[in-house]
């Protein structure tokens, strides 16, 4: 829940792949002339504009998109909308907002019962015009191909913000539903942003640049993963070769000989190559065991120039016995990047019983249900926010919490851990049963000061209306002081079942 960052990290994300394109284009030189000819004139190709990641209007500030996929639109239940908060030097605010749904002017199709517009979100400069675009998934959109096939559409960025839209994928083709797990990146290193969707038996890659009517340069399929369902996906450059890699957590259920249902989790990486993503390779975790998990994100936590992987695992039973002790209550696994890719020999795992981390590992806490990585304190080591949505607080069953860890030379530093809940001083609201505060998270530097604000969701707050909190960064980490909260009413939307904050742009 993407991936969706510091300026350095953008090389591994879709929007910043334009930077690679501008550098390579500017070095194009004409071939030398023969001996009887005048020296050739060296020509520089026009540099393409570079989009700042998540900057929809090109003002130099990151913007944040978050969804309410269960919201009513025009009387249609679970039609869904996306709320965009535009960044500025004065921090994010609901006064600089935009609401997008399928009844909005310029958005294709129409709001219908159950579409869940905004179930998945991603960003990237698909048309290479220097503005980041927003890709929106409607997971249960009905199309000409069938019921609940899902769709992907793009809302184009521009000087005045997001406007105009086009369908990118309509769920047609064998095994080709879409709208939930997709990422952007320069998977082949050609300088253009591509889109990869996982709702086929592998990756379906739509090569950029895209035309304004949503047509990609080409479409290819890469590396089937049979029998697995995707649980989470992110993209970044883990080996520093200038090509974006894709990492996904996958999940398999099967019935062994004894007739008992058993679950198996794995993490797969599709390495970026000149031909696009290579066939997937499995990433291992603790003691060389398969790396199980759901949530994940990529970022340069140890500041060595390679993006690192953090995977959150919330289930405690089943697949890999060596992990069960630390999996109690949920766990996260840190896998550093390197010139050879993700370094599974150097993994580190944490749960709430690990040194320095607040709380106690208790069954079903769901520590690691959400992961977001960016530089909170401005020291150029990227930091980590972790959701613990089923943390019990007093009488508040599943009230929820968020834990932050600062990055360091050897990865996440557990001694720096801080915890935030709705019962923390200066945090608006009260921890209540089933709020699930921390179910989705986003770190984003919306004020362009080198420090990322924290957006933390409780989609089940107020009987599933949903609420989002904004926390401010300091030189020592996230603070509860001057934190703010908003819900559907603050956005001018109906206060019904919305699950506001269900997901963020990655």
Automatic annotation (TrEMBL):
Protein name: FG-GAP-like repeat-containing protein
Entry keyword annotation includes Signal: yes
PROSITE patterns given in the database record: FG_GAP
Keyword annotations: Glycoprotein, Hydrolase, Repeat, Signal
Residue ranges crossing the lipid bilayer per the database entry: none
Signal sequence, start to end: 1-30
Provenance organism: Streptomyces amakusaensis
SMART domains (UniProt xref): Int_alpha
Any Pfam family the entry gives: FG-GAP_3
Taxonomic path: Bacteria, Bacillati, Actinomycetota, Actinomycetes, Kitasatosporales
Gene3D superfamilies in alphabetical order: Integrin alpha, N-terminal (2.130.10.130)
Superkingdom, taxonomy of origin: Bacteria
């Amino acid at each position: 829940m993407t991936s969706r960052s510091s300026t350095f990290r953008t090389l591994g994300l879709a929007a910043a792949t334009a930077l690679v394109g501008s550098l390579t284009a500017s070095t194009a030189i004409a071939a030398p002339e023969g001996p009887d000819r005048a020296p050739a004139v060296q020509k520089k190709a026009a540099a393409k504009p570079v989009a700042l990641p998540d900057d929809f209007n090109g003002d130099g500030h990151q913007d944040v998109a978050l969804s309410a996929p269960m919201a009513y639109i025009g009387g249609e239940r679970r039609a869904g909308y996306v709320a965009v908060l535009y960044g500025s030097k004065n921090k994010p605010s609901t006064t600089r907002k935009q609401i997008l749904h399928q009844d909005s002017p310029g958005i294709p199709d129409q709001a219908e019962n159950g579409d869940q517009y905004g179930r998945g979100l991603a960003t990237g400069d698909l048309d290479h015009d220097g503005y980041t675009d927003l890709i929106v998934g409607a997971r249960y959109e009905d199309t000409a191909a069938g019921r609940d096939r899902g769709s992907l559409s793009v809302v184009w960025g521009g000087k005045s913000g997001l406007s105009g839209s086009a369908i990118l994928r309509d769920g047609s083709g064998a095994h080709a539903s879409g709208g939930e797990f997709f990422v952007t990146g320069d998977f082949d290193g050609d300088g253009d942003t591509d889109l990869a969707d996982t709702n086929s038996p592998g990756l379906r890659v739509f090569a950029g640049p895209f035309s304004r009517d949503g047509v990609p340069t080409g479409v290819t399929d890469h590396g089937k993963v049979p029998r697995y369902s995707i649980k989470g996906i992110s993209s970044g450059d883990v080996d520093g070769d200038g090509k974006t890699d894709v990492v996904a957590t996958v999940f398999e259920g099967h019935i062994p000989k004894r007739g008992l249902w058993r679950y198996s989790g794995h993490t797969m990486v599709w390495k970026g190559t000149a031909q696009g993503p290579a066939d997937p390779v499995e990433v291992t975790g603790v003691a060389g065991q398969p790396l199980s998990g759901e949530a994940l994100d990529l970022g340069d936590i140890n500041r060595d120039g390679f993006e690192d992987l953090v995977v959150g695992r919330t289930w405690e039973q089943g697949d890999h016995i060596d992990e069960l002790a630390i999996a109690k209550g949920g766990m996260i696994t840190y896998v550093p990047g390197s010139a050879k890719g993700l370094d599974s020999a150097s993994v580190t795992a944490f749960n709430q019983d690990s040194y320095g981390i607040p709380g106690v590992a208790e069954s079903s806490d769901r520590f690691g249900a959400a992961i977001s990585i960016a530089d909170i304190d401005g020291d150029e080591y990227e930091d980590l926010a972790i959701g613990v949505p089923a943390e019990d607080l007093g009488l508040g069953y599943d009230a929820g919490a968020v834990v932050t860890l600062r990055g360091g030379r050897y990865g996440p530093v557990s001694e720096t851990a801080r915890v935030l809940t709705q019962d923390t001083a200066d945090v608006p609201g009260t921890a209540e049963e089933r709020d699930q505060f921390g179910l989705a998270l986003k770190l984003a530097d919306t004020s362009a000061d080198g420090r990322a604000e924290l957006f933390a969701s409780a989609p089940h707050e107020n009987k599933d209306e949903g609420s989002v909190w904004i926390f401010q960064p300091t030189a020592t980490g996230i603070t509860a002081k001057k934190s703010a909260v908003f819900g559907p009413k603050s956005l001018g939307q109906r206060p019904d079942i919305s699950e506001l904050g269900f997901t963020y742009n990655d």
